[in-house]
DNA sequence: GCCCACAGGCTAATAGCATTAGCCAGATTG
DNA sequence: CAATCTGGCTAATGCTATTAGCCTGTGGGC
């Protein structure tokens, strides 16, 4: 019986592939059985590399959050002001469209109490920081920055969540609606800057 | 062995209670076992009243959507313009805070293909229509109304989703941030009206 | 070059879940 | 009062995760 030569990373990678291939609900419906099948190993063998399903999910979430952060930072680079906000918003939506399950995984917030979630929590904070960077230059006062970031996140995530959940029934262009949402968010940021 | 005297409605009601008592993830973690325990009946007996777990979820979603629609309509009544939008937005958030699991259930969109989802789809359309009503009086052109509704929904739902998911780590006031989001949405609607 | 230890695979067993089949009694109706 | 049907039940199947315990291939020390 030859060894499969797995590792934690290999298992998490397989889980990423399994989830990603299963559409928007891929993260929720992720099973050890599917990952075992993909890695060519029996289910209990996975426990040699991963603490269990929850831990595997954590690993998937961590990779997904970091990928999303890279996307955000990449879009923001070399841009500023409304232009940067638009690019970042579109980038996040693109990521969600290309990898619905991973985007969903990235939204699973870390439990501040659980020490096992510390790394995930830090990664999430980095993503938020990357978004906050984009708001530089708008002149939003320090104490309103949190509100601005939350507002931008809410607008973008809300649209994506509804879009992926099939919440928008009408056939009208989703791209155009998204642009309206983003333009509105920009407007809101500018309002926070002047008020 | 005395009969429990169940009915579809009784089973759905029990499921609502079970889900509601289990916090934000109550809808996802709903199990027939828990509903059976609450109704004092063996698990397979539930199949006499409900098609299965999926069908039970559909029933819960339907009740939840209708409750949310009533809330929206109630808040909108007697108000108009920005005042109405603010009231509706706060009402939706209140509903989500009071009944996180039911709010989550109400977001489960119906499958347009599945005839069993027809009723749920119609109920969802009513909820959207109730929101659209609030936009009367802003003077948003006909062909932009869809965008306005989507934008408002995205803002409100996005905030709630992040709030309930623990996505807002910082201790700053969530109520204030929500007001910022709502004010921004109003701004966006007004922009659509004039542009 | 051999031996030993351990890492990484395995099978078996347990427990929780949904679902289906088939039985049986209580209530309803002719 | 009998017949039927409704709504309970138990038993069985199959999927899931998880734990325990075995066994073997691989690599390091002598």
Secondary structure: number of strands of chain A: 0
Helical content of chain A stands at 55-70%
Fraction in beta strands of chain A = under 5%
The CATH topology label of the domain at 61-194 in chain A is Tetracycline Repressor, domain 2
CATH H-level superfamily title of the domain at 61-194 in chain A: Tetracycline Repressor, domain 2
Mean pLDDT reading of chain A: 96
Helical run tally of chain A = 8
Output the CATH class name of the domain at 61-194 in chain A. Mainly Alpha
Overall outline of chain A: elongated
Structural class category of chain A: mainly alpha
Examine the secondary-structure arrangement and name the CATH architecture of the domain at 61-194 in chain A. Orthogonal Bundle
What string, H for helix and E for strand, traces the elements of chain A in order? Answer: HHHHHHHH
Protein chains sharing the most extensive interface: A-B, 44 and 44 residues
Oligomer: homodimer
């Amino acid at each position: 019986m030859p060894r499969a030569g797995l590792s934690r990373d290999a298992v998490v990678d397989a889980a990423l592939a399994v989830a990603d291939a299963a559409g928007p609900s891929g993260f929720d419906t992720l099973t050890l059985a599917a990952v075992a099948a993909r890695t060519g190993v029996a289910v209990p063998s996975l426990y040699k590399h991963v603490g269990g399903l929850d831990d595997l999910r954590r690993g998937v979430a961590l990779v997904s959050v970091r990928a999303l952060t890279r996307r955000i930072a990449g879009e923001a680079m070399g841009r500023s002001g409304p232009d940067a906000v638009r690019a970042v918003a579109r980038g996040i939506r693109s990521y969600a469209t290309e990898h619905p399950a991973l985007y969903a995984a990235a939204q699973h917030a870390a439990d501040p109490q659980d020490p096992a979630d510390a790394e995930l929590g830090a990664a999430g904070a980095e993503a938020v920081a990357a978004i906050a960077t984009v708001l530089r230059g708008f002149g939003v006062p320090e104490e309103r920055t949190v509100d601005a970031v939350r507002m931008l996140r809410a607008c973008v995530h809300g649209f994506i969540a509804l879009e992926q959940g099939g919440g928008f029934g009408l056939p009208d262009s989703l791209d155009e609606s998204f642009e309206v949402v983003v333009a509105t968010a920009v407007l809101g940021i500018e309002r926070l800057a002047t008020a």
